[in-house]
What does this fold into?
Amino acid sequence: MSKLPAEIVASALAVTTIFIGMVFHLPPWAIFITWAGTFAAGGPSASVLKKFFPTMVVGGIFACAIVMCFKVASQYFTGTPYILAECVILFTLNATMMSLARFFPALSFIPGMFFGFASFFATYFGKFGPVPGDPLFALAASVSMNAVGPIYAWITANFGAHHHAPEESAQVRVREAVS
It folds into this structure.
């Protein structure tokens, strides 16, 4: 059975994100961030997913912690002192998040942290999720949608025929002929 072009498979999957966003008010961009990120990390393989999922969740958790700390700081500070408190909070928690990679090999894929980090902030500040503006619901929504991205990458890779540049096509044909 011949595969559909990857562009068709990927576009059909992209269409599903419209319904995810409309019906469930979940952040469809979080799917695209980790879908593309999966391919940028080497493609949907067990080794990529093993390093991808934990870091993505850690990034979302730290982003949520930053928002919650900002809320606490806003109860005690205003104006310039509040901005300085935000700087200290962001610097401290971001540095801590990234430093985890030094101590835990399973968390060494720092870009994955930022996929989760960015997805959380876009979800929270975009007021997406089952309870818009609630940091814990935003965390759940962004992490769950981030988890869909690698699944879409796997579907695209396994059910779509990828286009190769002319020089890549020649190499692919030679590899296929040899094997």
